[in-house]
Every structure is written in C-alpha cells, then in structure tokens.
Amino acid sequence: MRVSTKFSKFFISEIISVVIGVVFWVILAWQVEPGEYGEIQFLVGIASIASTIGLVGAGPTMAVSLAKKVPIQSNLILLSITMGGILFPITYFIFNRYDLGTLLYGMIFFQLSVGILQGKQEYSRYFNYVIAQKIIFVVAAEVFLFLFGIEFIIFAFSISYIIFINILLKEFKVTNLDMKLFSEKSFFVLNNYIITLFSIARDNIDKLIIVPVLGYVILGNYSLALQAILLLSSVITIINKYALPILSTKSDAGQFLRVSFFISLPLLAIGYFVMPIVIELLFHKYEHTIETIKILSFSIPAYSLVTAYNTRLFAIEKSKFVLIGLIVFVSILTPLMLYFGSSYGINGVSYSYVISIYVHSAVLYMFNRINKKQ
C-alpha cells in the first residue's frame, strides 16, 4: 500500500475518532453540572494513571518493535495483563469503585492493540476498530447516563474497549514468549515505561492539583477548555503518530513533522478568537472556560514541537532524551500550578501549563541538536 493511501486511512480514522470523542465530552458537559463534569474527568484521570502503570511502556515499545519486525508482543501483553490484575484491587481499595478497575483494564487493552496495529501499519483494521470503539463508547455512555445516572458512566466507558481483546488473543497465539529477546530489549522497555509514567503525570497532574486546591467546578471548566485544545491539536498528534513507525524503519518522514508545526499557527488563532465565542453561545454554565481557552491556545505551537521532537527521538530509540524532557516539564509544571493556581485560580493554572510546555520544547530542541551532531 502506498504511503499516501496508508496516511489517508490513518488520518481519517484518527480524525473521526477524535471528533466523536470530543463531541461526546462537549455534549456531556452540556448535560451535567460543571462540578459533575470535573469529577468524571478526575476519575478518568485516575484510571489513566493506573493503566499507564500497568502497561509498563508497552504501547510505544510495541509500535517501534513491530515496525522493525521484532516479535515481542506476547511478552508485553502478558506483562501488562498481569500488572493490571495487581492494580485492579488496589484502585478498588483506595477509591471504593470497581468501575475504575474495569476502565483501567479497558485502557490497557486499547493501548496494547493500538501499538500492535500501528507497528504493523495495518490501518484498515485500525480504522475499523477505533471507529467501532468510539461509537460503542458514545452509545453506552449515553444509555447508562439515561438509565442509571452519572455514577455509572465510568463503567459504560469500559465496555467500549472489550472489542480489542480479539487483537490481543490473536497476537498472543501467533507469537511465542521469548524471554531472551525480552531481556535484550529490557532497557528500551524500561526507558519507555518511565517515559509513559511521566507522560501520564504530565497529562493528569493538573487534575490532581486542581481538585484539592480549586475543586471539581473549576476542574470542569478547565477540562472543557482542554477538550477544545485537544480537538484543535488533533491534526498535529495524528501526523506524528503516523510518522513514528516510518521513522523507525529509517524512512524519511520529515515532511509530516514540518507540516505539523506550520498547521499549529492557524490553530492557535482559531483557539484564541473562535472557540471562546462557541463556548459563550453554548455553555453558559462554564463561565471560567472562555479565558482559559484563550490562554491554552498559545500552547499549541509548543505542543507541535514537543510532539515532533519526541517522535524523532522515539524512532531512533533515544528515549532517554524524551524522559529527561518529561522530567523537566513535570518538575516545572507542578510547583507553578501549585503557586499560581492557589494565587490566581484557573488562569494561573493555564499560564503554568503554557510556560512549562515552551520550556519543554526548548529542552527537546537542544537534545535533537546534540543528537544530530553525534
């Protein structure tokens, strides 16, 4: 299959998936109160953290290894499923919610399967599974919300991930466990694991800080703004996800990465000027979201640089530089959010994120320059 055809299928599936997901979250924000919306986002963030711990870096490791024809998937599947079994009772004990356990397992199934399909570049199957998951996700969530109330919505999310079990069972059957091969790749796996832990800290530290400092209502407003930024930056994410297996095989994907940055500039303008108008017209309860979207829009160009640099470094297995960049980002973001969040509220949290991601992009730029000279 030609690169243009592969990219078209991948791009379309990712765009549809992101749009369905964001539209659902936006509709849900319209259906519930800001505090309830914030609580759901907090619980999903907890499940994301737990599933990332259980994955042991298997997602990116799977994508890169399979692109290089390294049959490591059975080892990673078994390890991740075992870790999920350990984390399930822990999440129940801490939060007294069994639905968090089912969701963390669903997220593990999803990330493992995406890594397999992405690494093999099977974008027709990728399209079918991802779109099916999103449709099931939306239908189940709305049905559970209508029949049982908002307290059952997390369990509804879990149901949508069941379809990925088929992919994992098939890969486990056709690939033998190979402890020697796994041992040879252990350093790369460990690096990716640590990276994914810091990645999930980066993506969820705001939730963990906002709830105790500012409460669920402010988190609800902030999360709605993030959904708008996620929708705008989805094109950048898709381009770089597609480029990862291509770069892993030493092919040139530089054109994809350059395009992602130039796209970020008009996206910033849309986020700053258009999105606040949409929020003001449709979401009267989310009064704090308008200014937040304007501030967070300035993070989009830096996000494009961070994503592009990380893709290059992952592809050449220089993940230690990705890890250092994440450590820098989280180390700056956490104290800034604690200080500015408590002093200036939701705007302080937003400015903290923008400052941190620009520092992150500068650090990764330096590492890429160093790597090119070696």
| Structural domain tally | 1
- Overall pLDDT: 85
**What share of residues are in beta strands?**
under 5%
- Which structural class is indicated by helix and strand composition? mainly alpha
Rounded to an integer in angstroms, the radius of gyration calculated over CA atoms is 20 Å
Shape: globular
Q: How many strands, what sense, and barrel or not for the largest sheet?
A: none
How far apart the termini lie comes to 34 Å
Low-confidence stretches: none
| Sequence of secondary-structure elements | HHHHHHHHHHHHHHH
What does this structure look like?
- The protein has 15 helices and no strands.
- The chain is mainly α and 374 residues long.
- It has one domain.
- Helix 2 (34-55) runs parallel beside helix 11 (216-248) and helix 5 (98-120) runs parallel beside helix 7 (153-159).
- The two termini are 34 Å apart.
- The mean pLDDT is 85.
Summarize the structure.
The chain has one domain (3-373).
Task: Give a topology summary.
Blueprint: H1 3-31, H2 34-55, H3 58-67, H4 73-95, H5 98-120, H6 123-148, H7 153-159, H8 165-174, H9 179-184, H10 186-214, H11 216-248, H12 254-282, H13 289-297, H14 300-315, H15 319-373
